[in-house]
Amino acid sequence: MKKIDFSSFANIDRFSQRLEELRAGLEGIDPATLAGNTGAVWEQTSREAGHFKLSLWNRPLAVYLPGWIIRKLPTGEETSPIDQALILYYFSLADGAPLSRRWISFSDLPDGRFYIQAFHGYTGQKLAQVFQNDQAGFVNAAVSLGGSPSTLGDASFEFWALPRAPILVVYWRGDEDFPSSAQVLFDASASHYLTTDACAILGSTLTRRLIAASQPLI
Predict the structure, then answer these.
(1) Who is most buried in 61, 107, 142, 196, counting CB within 10 A?
(2) Are 117 and 89 within one domain?
(3) Considering the domain boundaries, does residue 1 fall inside one?
(4) pTM of the model as a whole
């Protein structure tokens, strides 16, 4: 399978073509098998039609067949192309592997070691720059986004990007010798569900959401 190559998003025609390729590749696969592999709920509405229900960042979505059109619930608004790509890749790659409940760095993902510096720059380093020693601010932002507390670091929270794609953000408070730091981690089963590029997008998205949640409303 081709990598997701989100850089092609700048070329709308090429990105749209890739989405259509993903949809074509999913046609004809047994929906029950896909539901079992992805953790989505399949609801058949007629002999040839139905939809999957799942959540992306706790936002309910429906994936309608035939056509593999992805819409927000309950509004019915079509999701962004980037979210469509994430979900279509998720359905294309998911093999039903159990979650390991063991957290790994981005560098432990396939080819991740080549991009870890860039990834950490726009995730962990960015979070440390924004929150610095404001542990309470980090905790409040994470809780507001529905994160579940974990035990690593001075504060850590688990988020569910997709039903089989948990992400952990760990925060360490600084002192006079060391600055504060943060890291975004993935379940060791991540490559069974998403490409490394897609994991990078999820890590970046979660970072932006945490920073936005920490900003005061104007």
Answers:
(1) 142
(2) no
(3) no
(4) 0.88
Which of 61, 93, 125 finishes a domain?
93
| Residue 51 CA to its chain's centroid (Å) | 21
Q: Are residues 204 and 107 in the same domain?
A: yes
pLDDT per residue rounded down to tens, the chain (218 residues):
444 454 444 455 667 788 898 999 998 899 999 999 999 999 999 888 999 999 999 999 999 999 999 999 999 999 998 899 899 999 999 999 999 999 999 999 999 999 999 999 999 999 999 999 999 999 999 999 999 999 999 999 999 999 999 999 999 998 888 899 999 999 999 999 999 999 999 999 999 999 999 986 54
115/32 same-domain check: no
Q: How far is CA 157 from CA 54, 113, 154, 172, in A?
A: 21, 24, 11, 12
Give the β-pairing of 181-187 and 50-56: unpaired
